[in-house]
Amino acid sequence: MASVHTISEVHLLPVIQQMLEQFPFEILGFHADNGSEYINHRVAQMLDKLRIEFTRSRPRRSNDNGLAETRNGAVVRKAFGYEHIPRRHAGRFNTFCREYLNPFLSFHRPCLYATELADPKKPGRIKRVYRPRDAMTPLDKQASLPEAASFLRPGITLEDLHAQARALTDIQAAEELNAARAALFRRVPARTA
């Protein structure tokens, strides 16, 4: 996650580069909505240079970005609320995301991953079931994949990522995140009616 001053290619391009560098694995695809901040020559050149496939949503089809819409509700709104954030504070929010929120989401926040089972009521169909025992962090999910290390960027190892995750317990990471969020919102006063 990241924050930008304005939704324009001038501000978005450096943030996209920053986000791509923050991922420990090779990025193969980039999916965006139809906003002009994404659909332009500069973003296309950057993604081509990195050999990242670019796909976009169909116009007026919010279901095409179900993952992004879910993340907005489950992560963004929970972390930042529904208030408008003045653009002069975008840098602070971006720093918060890079230093606290993104590491917390990657290393300490469990997610449910679907298990695919044969549907007993409909032969030949696959049913996706989300069970609490299948909850794991994105790092744990990455590590559970066959040949997981082959997907990492050069110079990054699973051992390094696990060491980074073990630097704080889940509780310590949550407390650090909450303290940083409280400090952030003390500097960004709530809008008065």
Distance between the termini: 29 Å
Give the biggest sheet: 2 strands, parallel
Mean pLDDT across the residues is: 86
Helix share, percent = 40-55%
Q: How many helices does DSSP assign? A: 7
In total, how many domains does the architecture comprise?
A: 2
C-alpha Rg, in Å?
A: 19 Å
Approximately what portion of the residues adopt beta-strand conformation?
5-15%
- Low-pLDDT runs of 5+ residues are none
Q: Could you characterize the architecture of this molecule?
A:
Helices cover 47% and strands 10% of the residues. By secondary structure, the protein is mostly helical. The protein folds into two domains: 119 residues, Nucleotidyltransferase, domain 5; 56 residues, no CATH class. A hairpin with a 7-residue loop joins β4 and β5.
Question: What's the short version?
Answer:
With 193 residues, the chain is mostly helical. Helices cover 47% and strands 10% of the residues. The model has no long low-confidence stretch (mean pLDDT 86).
